[in-house]
Amino acid sequence: xxxxxxxxxxxxxxxxxxxxxxxxxxxxxxxxxxxxxxxxxxxxxxxxxxxxxxxxxxxxxxxxxxxxxxxxxxxxxxxxxxxxxxxxxxxxxxxxxxxxxxxxxxxxxxxxxxxxxxxxxxxxxxxxxxxxxxxxxxxxxxxxxxxxxxxxxxxxxxxxxxxxxxxxxxxxxxxxxxxxxxxxxxxxxxxxxxxxxxxxxxxxxxxxxxxxxxxxxxxxxxxxxxxxxxxxxxxxxxxxxxxxxxxxxxxxxxxxxxxxxxxxxxxxxxxxxxxxxxxxxxxxxxxxxxxxxxxxxxxxxxxxxxxxxxxxxxxxxxxxxxxxxxxxxxxxxxxxxxxxxxxxxxxxxxxxxxxxxxxxxxxxxxxxxxxxxxxxxx
Length: 378
Ligand SMILES: CC(C)(COP(=O)(O)OP(=O)(O)OC[C@H]1O[C@@H](n2cnc3c(N)ncnc32)[C@H](O)[C@@H]1OP(=O)(O)O)[C@@H](O)C(=O)NCCC(=O)NCCS
Fold this sequence. Notes:
By secondary structure, the chain is mostly helical. Helices cover 55% and strands 3% of the residues. The site of coenzyme A has 15 residues, from loops.
């Protein structure tokens, strides 16, 4: 076909590039499945560790398998001293930049780095999943002039995240919220960061390269960065009475309501419903129900947009939940990233299993055969 007649798929909207067993989004009905299991069942019944096993290995673990897997995760949570030194050196960077750099640096300390076999990739994915909370929390403390806290092998990843962040044994109710949040973020079709990770894997680059790419791509506000923006919006709205005016002013000036809209979901993102319930419970427990009420008022005002497929997504309620847990706002995306490491790993494994170089084309619309003039004559 001649270049001028090619069809463009800008944004790769609705383009299917391969098959997957990892997750399925039914955007029309607002359903999400990990490895065939409905997220609604997993969110209320499974720990993050159980879901990591499911996503990375393809089946739910038995009690014995989970036990062994939890031990493997917990024994891999520490990060080498030189990586801590790198974090100290770049402590003033955004937490996502620090996470990306530290994951990249961890490759220098991983014996499996150049081994792209499924077994080695799984081992590396397990290690990176275990190390991500340690990186994020170590950085958060270092930049505040505090000593990083060594992970506690008796605690889950979610409990360790809060423990290493605040330095105190966390409230089990807070742990349950973070645990579920990690579950809800663990895997999600060919989102932009997973696509980025797959592109890296398709060149036969290793898992550290792919996860580093995933973190880089996740950082943007159209992807992982929306939770922080939603919290900023809630603060700007300030009270329920102001929600309608704020939303209408934003939309009429061509702005977007953060935490709304999704490339695949045209119904409400099912993950947001779990987070909505969690935020309500947390807000009441902390004596700050106002954030939930403000966000619900935004949902009300946005109701007419639901017909156009613009509904609340996973980021809409999570920001306020993290805020009520006293988590600094610039760490919000990093929480998403911690949860997503298993998903990136699973998709890299799939890419390796039936690899094809991901290399689409661009339609050239520039000039041709321009007259070349030597630099001294220009
Ligand atoms: C997520 C997102 C990037 C998906 O975008 P997309 O699939 O490329 O869809 P588009 O950007 O083409 O938007 C399609 C239409 O919906 C509108 N729209 C999409 N999201 C909107 C939002 N949050 N607020 C208001 N309008 C929105 C667009 O203005 C556009 O309208 P138009 O066709 O009249 O121009 C987009 O919905 C968005 O920017 N949301 C806010 C950021 C966010 O919450 N990101 C987290 C995603 S999990």
